[in-house]
Write a structure and sequence with these properties.
It is a single chain. By secondary structure, this protein is mainly alpha-helical. It is built from 4 helices and 2 strands. A two-stranded antiparallel ribbon has the order 1-2. α1 crosses α2, α1 packs across α3 and α1 packs across α4.
Length: 100
């Protein structure tokens, strides 16, 4: 069976990659800095690779991280798009009235 990576780790990875900061990613995701840091550590442990270079208070993708991001980010965007499409009403111009 394939190893399943928790979706929250993928969200954290993409947010950190796009913001360059765990602090900024935590704000985007509305979670604590610690939650983002733990999600990244867990992801790196599961894939057996470091994905970021720590540069002072910022982080940047290393070579492995860049390759992973190029594959994961579009997939995550597809999941978000599919969810948003599912949440849209089928008949957006339908009006329903309930009379008492």
């Amino acid at each position: 069976m394939k190893t399943l990576i928790p979706l929250k780790s993928i969200y954290a990875f993409v947010a950190v990659a796009e913001t360059g900061s765990m602090t900024n990613a935590s704000k985007v995701l509305n979670v604590s800095h610690s939650a983002v840091s733990q999600a990244i550590k867990s992801l790196e442990s599961q894939v057996g690779q470091t994905l970021f270079r720590r540069v002072g208070r910022h982080v940047e993708l290393n070579g492995q991280g860049k390759r992973y991001y190029r594959k994961v980010a579009p997939a995550l965007e597809q999941i978000v798009d599919a969810t948003e499409a599912l949440q849209k009403p089928e008949h957006p111009h339908r009006l329903t009235l309930n009379l008492i």
